[in-house]
Amino acid sequence: MSENMLEVTNLCISFGGLRAVDGLNMKIRKGQLYGLIGPNGAGKTTVFNMLTGVYKPTSGKIMLDGENITGKPSIAINRAGIARTFQNIRLFKNMSVLDNVKAGLHNHMKYTTIEGILRLPRYFKEEKRATEKAMELLKVFELDGEAQQLAANLPYGKQRKLEIARALATDPKLLLLDEPAAGMNPNETEELMQTIHFVRDSFKMTILLIEHDMKLVSGICEELTVLNFGQELAQGETSAVLNDPKVITAYLGE
Amino acid sequence: MKKLNISKTSRSNFITYGMVIVLAALMMILDGAGVLSSSMRGFLVPMCIYIIMAVSLNLVVGILGELSLGHAGFMCIGAYTSAVFSKCMVDTITFAPLRFTIAILIGAACAAVFGVLIGIPVLRLKGDYLAIVTLAFGEIIKNICNVINLGVDSAGMHISFDKASDLNLAEDGQIIIKGSQGISGTPKDSTFLVGVILVMITLVVILNLINSRTGRAIMSIRDNRIAAQSIGIDVTKYKLMVFTISAAFAGAAGALYAHNYATLTATGDKFNYNASIMILVYVVLGGIGNIRGSIIATIILYILPEKLRFLKDYRMLVYAIVLILVMLYNWSPKMQEYREVLRLKLKAKFGKLNKEESIT
Ligand SMILES: Nc1ncnc2c1ncn2[C@@H]1O[C@H](COP(=O)(O)OP(=O)(O)O)[C@@H](O)[C@H]1O
Ligand SMILES: [Mg+2]
Questions:
Q1: What is the domain range of residue A218?
Q2: Can you give the pLDDT at residue B192?
Q3: Which residues from B are below 8 Å from A when comparing CB atoms?
Q4: Is a pLDDT exceeding 70 seen at residue B87?
Q5: Are residues A72 and A187 in the same domain?
Q6: N or C of chain A: less Cβ packing under 10 Å?
């Protein structure tokens, strides 16, 4: 198929009079770790919401691995291969850590509701397989020890990790992370960035990452797009973008 | 780790099944020995009915997290449709267990159809709006059942919403539903044993459903709809499924109800919002999402008002106070803390103690 995992063309959305995202163009190659940065309120989360079908774009086009997914509902987009995390964590709080990840495996478990109610052999086989898969994912994020805890009882940093594990469980082609390090201390952040790198390499994943803090992304992102007031301010290789005077002013002016 | 998890939830489920079987056996033995008072004996079948109602409502309220105030409406549909079937077939199918089984299935199926019918438009609503619409639905059903006249003769079925005489039945005709006088002469097929079997079926289906991929999908919708959609869970499909399953069990409970009395009417408090709210009270007090709690709460709260009869006028006052106390016991943070401390103490004393499951 195409060489690009994601191609966004002239993407726009307005809320009433506000053009929250205004003509965004972005190409992300397969296997790339790509950063979307910009000051608070620049429209980064709104971009994610359009990519994942939470909002319908006013205009523009989104292509995932050669497939047009513009304006499709969230479920279809997840099945097409995009999974995400949320800036304001959205876990299934009253479910166990393990069940959060197993919920992510929902569409990969091959037994019907009837088979589940009647406890036919496929139920046991698939549940076992899912549990093993989920435990593997939890191990990547060092959450396997807390598998039986309620998600709500995890400390903040681990909740963020659990969200990533749950998203990965859906076996996406493209993973969207919305400020994954928000609220973490520098040590946790450093460790998380390494985990993200590891996920990209070992799962052969394409990752688009939102970060509010520019310094964080410089470590791991290969390319960046900088948004400011809904518009693209700069785009390209990380070091070049970060040294761009326009970008520096935008951040200083914040 | 994984083995532990599976055995833990199934252990909790088996405690629930065991509790029901032991209680049922105890009641049967007491009944056989002739020590049950006649009022207690009259309670046995209704108890099963309301346990089924509470458990199936808990699926909507506790597992899906939507407020429904029309659960008694589904029960009403199940009661009427099954009673009509039994009355028509009482001479055709003389083998009562078979006839009653079909009647229950018909009651469940008809209620399920209504579950889908009101589910489709209603599932776009949330919270209070859903509660109001389901409340209205229950009232509409009850009121329709109150005015409907139905008769059969050689020419087929006749329906009138005014007077029974409008049915214009032929000589050989028979009135099945007679307005507010309802249906009389339904075969009294309901027994405690049938009730217990239905309770067990309800429990197995709902507990197995909860502990499956479908149950996880339903709970994920409850906990966070947007996140559930983001991992590819079809919110509409599962909401509709929950509504349908829950309605079907309420329909089966209705069938049990209709065949427990010689006459079935929709007047009074049986199928109106009072009944729906009473069932909701059982669910809330038993613990939202806690199936075993629903059973225990139903048993206690169903018997309580009767046992308080000696208090005469103060009966409902005491009942209300008990409700408030149970509510505090279940939900106040201080009490929860205290119970946790107590549990740990007991655990230290008696070694391994079964850990309470939050969702079982
Ligand atoms: N649903 C909405 N309705 C109205 N305005 C919105 C909505 N979602 C986002 N916005 C606005 O769009 C702008 C961009 O927000 P957001 O994408 O959250 O920024 P950030 O870059 O910090 O993630 C903000 O001004 C915000 O108020
Ligand atoms: Mg944001």
A1: 1-81+172-254
A2: 96
A3: 1-2, 4-6, 204-205, 208-209, 212-217, 219-220, 222-224, 226-235, 241, 289, 358-359
A4: yes
A5: yes
A6: N
Q: Are residues A244 and A231 in the same domain?
A: yes
CA angle, A32 then A38 then A39, to 5°: 155
The closest ligand to the CA of A42 turns out to be: 1
pLDDT at B350: 66
| Domain-ending residue, one of A171, A187, A209 | A171
Q: Is any atom of ligand 1 closer than 6 Å to the C-beta of A71?
A: no
Of residues B26, B69, B59, the one with CA closest to residue B239: B59
Q: Are B36 and B255 in contact (CB under 8 A)?
A: no
ipTM of predicted assembly, 2 dp: 0.93
Substitution site in A12, A45, A54 for ligand 1 pocket (most atoms within 8 Å of beta carbon): A45
Instruction: Specify the higher pLDDT residue, B154 or A175.
Output: A175
- Predicted confidence at residue B169, as pLDDT, reads 79
Q: Are residues A229 and A197 in the same domain?
A: yes
Residue B226: which of A90, A104, A128 has the nearest Cβ?
A: A90
Min Cα–Cα distance to chain A from B297, Å? 22
Burial of B74 (0-12, 13-18, 19+ CB in 10 A): buried
Q: Do A127 and A182 have their domain in common?
A: no
**Which residues of B are less than 8 Å from A79 in CB distance?**
232
Supply the CATH number for residue A50's domain.
Answer: 3.40.50.300
Query: DSSP secondary structure string, B298-324?
Result: HHHHHHHHHHTGGGGGGHHHHHHHHHH
For the entire predicted model, the pTM comes to 0.90
Is residue A86 included in any domain, yes or no?
no
Highest-scoring range by mean pLDDT, B86-95, B204-213, B312-321: B204-213
